[in-house]
Amino acid sequence: MADIAYLMSFRVPTQNVFQAEVALADLYYSIGEEEFSKGGVETFAIHRVVGDPGAYQIYEQYTNAAAGRHGTGPLVRAAWSQVLARMVAPFERVLLDPLGVFGLEKSIGSDVVGDECWRYTIRVSPEDAGQLEVIFDDIMDAMEIDEFSFGEVKSYTAHRIVGDVGRYVMYEHFTALGSGKHATGANLLIVGRKQMSLIVTPFERLQLEPLFALGLKHAAYGKTAPGSRSSAHR
Which domain CATH number covers 146? Predict the structure, then answer.
């Protein structure tokens, strides 16, 4: 499991979406060339936020060594400067402490057209944080029975948000079939109700449209492997 993770949110002007996605594609391939081959980049996934034109999310997972190297190479620095130049406001990048991970691999796999990703954020009272983390273990056990064995969950990760006790984020990646069936099984419904009983503010669940990703099981959203710039981004 990764040592460290980040979730980044940012926005670009809607009239500049194409230029921004060209810059994001260059960032993706630059990380592939300078970082992924060295190991330790568990995930680097770039998404549009569905229904919110110009909004993007980047989900990152690293070993400590890879986190220390991230962004230090000349290609990545140059590509990131082009992404920054297209943002309309400062980005938010929160540090995550991984609690549980299913389905992530270091290898690059096949195209995942038709898959769905979600970001699910919840808050509980700080005094309930320990109880919620026990429930996360129960959720993973329930999903093992209800969902994981059928192969429709590509990845499912749960994290604390560092520095904000009681706030948690889940990053979920399903096939279209898996997304439709998620949380309908008897075991997960039971433990899900326990989780919902602890939430103190309305949860946020954003649907994400994959653009490019490194390191997700079965995932290479670009049409060629990292390190090759021969294909145009979508």
Answer: 3.30.70.100
